[in-house]
Amino acid sequence: MLNFLSLMFAFPGTKPGLKAFYSDHFVLPLPAGNRFPMQKYRLVREGAMAAEPALDLCEAPRCSDGELALAHHPSWIGAVTRGELTAAQQRQIGFPWSDRMAERSRRSVGATVACCRAALADGVAVNLAGGTHHAYADHGEGFCVFNDAAVAARLMQAERRVKRVAIVDLDVHQGNGTARILASDDSVFTLSLHGEHNFPFRKEVSDLDVALPDGTGDDPYLAGLAQALASMFSRFTPQLIIYLAGADPHEGDRLGRLKLSFDGLARRDRMVLDAAGARGIPVAIAMAGGYGRDIADTVTVHLQTIVVAAECARRWHSGLPPAAISDSSARHVRNA
Known about the structure:
Blueprint: H1 7-10, E1 19-22, H2 40-51, E2 56-59, H3 65-68, H4 74-82, H5 87-93, H6 99-122, E3 124-127, H7 148-158, E4 165-169, H8 176-181, E5 188-195, E6 208-212, H9 218-235, E7 240-244, H10 262-278, E8 283-286, H11 295-318, H12 328-335
Parallel strand pairs: 1-2, 1-3, 3-8, 4-5, 4-7, 5-6, 7-8
Helix pairs in contact: 2-11, 6-7, 9-10, 10-11, 11-12
């Protein structure tokens, strides 16, 4: 097992600029009144460029049929591609079908795949979208068409880059599709910390589920996360972590029902990255959900995650320990 100080040698020849993969230019034509905050992805990319000038922005690649088939039934891939979704299937997803919807869904998965490859090379990387954890093998739901984390985990294994992957899902909603797709796969560990009474109302069984009551705030949330991470690492030794850093646990989220502050969410991100860094484990980050009453709050939470990840990458490549990661940069984002 690598120790933290060896990370600078574990990822030789890399540059400190964090790689970030974007797909916000694939905009879905949504009907008036749709709850999905499509504009947040452009705002996150623009904010990230301002907050982290050294960010290495890369367009999300397109995920192929064969790659999607690592986690999805060919019939589902074909139906999405050809526009053969029924009205009921479209309602379950929450999006009307369009060519752009199908293309964006492939790009969102492709971004997480590319993010994993970059993280394995550089230590950490981010997808400025992704986290489509409600998608099942044979259907989509909850604004999710294809499951990016499940596809990416299996593709990294198929490419023989890693054998064991952990998916740490800190979106406020349980990663039900991820849990079901990977239920019988001992080589991928699924951890979900989510609202007990929130969507999906019929939960699946992850390798480790932590269900939190409505109104949970910073301290009990972080205590639960620390315990969950300790339990995961006692049971499983991942070679890659895919981290879904949802903004929806924030107290201002209209769908979240938890009460985490900006500072609490920054501490959450540092906890995950510190735990991974201390063990020499690369981290690929996806933004996952966020539905703030004020979209600026959602964007701020996502930007905090990106800034914390960029600071972490700089510390790793400077050989500094995880405890040296400061909250000053994340605080600057909130005060901007």
